[in-house]
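Tokens in:
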């Protein structure tokens, strides 16, 4: 097993030309803005892409990126368990952009998709409001709001998010088969 390490945005920028950059966010998040040259391999497709990632890692260092760093750390642990040496970008694309570095936005990508965090906030807020409104009809509906509150607390304590995992399965957050195949082909050609 290898041990993943962390690069700050400044270090990553200076080495960007020599790194294989994997963005493990959803395709929608990726389209909204990603590091130049990054390839999108959503976290839930990592196992499928493992042979191709392993192949690319033999030819260059791998940098794993997400929005803030939590998903990329999970991906790095998974890859390290499979013998792939990786680094994660400290603070993710948020820190990259905050450092004044450009994000690549394909045509139509700017504002076309919401970040997973924003999707979770909308879903959680909607369920809480629905629980409170329906609680006027029957008090048991307030349990919806309590369930979301418990889920958010658990999410904060464990640095995981069950709601994000569910939302990632929605069609707009799923890669098109051709997109993922093109990414895997790109990894094989490195």
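Residues out:
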């Amino acid at each position: 097993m290898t041990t993943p390490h962390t690069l700050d945005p400044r270090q990553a920028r200076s080495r960007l030309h020599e790194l294989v950059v994997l963005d493990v966010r959803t395709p929608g998040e990726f389209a909204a803005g990603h590091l130049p040259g990054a390839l999108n391999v959503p976290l839930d497709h990592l196992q499928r892409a493992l042979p191709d990632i392993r192949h690319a890692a033999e030819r260059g260092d791998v940098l794993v990126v997400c929005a803030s760093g939590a998903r990329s750390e999970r991906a790095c642990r998974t890859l390290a368990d499979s013998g792939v040496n990786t680094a994660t970008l400290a603070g993710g694309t948020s820190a990259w952009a905050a450092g004044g570095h450009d994000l690549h936005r394909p045509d139509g990508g700017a504002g076309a998709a919401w970040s997973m965090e924003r999707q979770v906030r909308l879903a959680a807020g909607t369920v809480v409001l629905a629980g409170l409104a329906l609680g006027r009809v029957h008090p048991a509906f307030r349990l919806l709001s309590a369930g979301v509150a418990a889920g958010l607390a658990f999410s904060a304590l464990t640095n995981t998010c069950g709601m994000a995992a569910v939302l990632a399965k929605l069609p707009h957050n799923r890669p098109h088969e051709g997109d993922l195949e093109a990414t895997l082909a790109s990894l094989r050609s490195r």
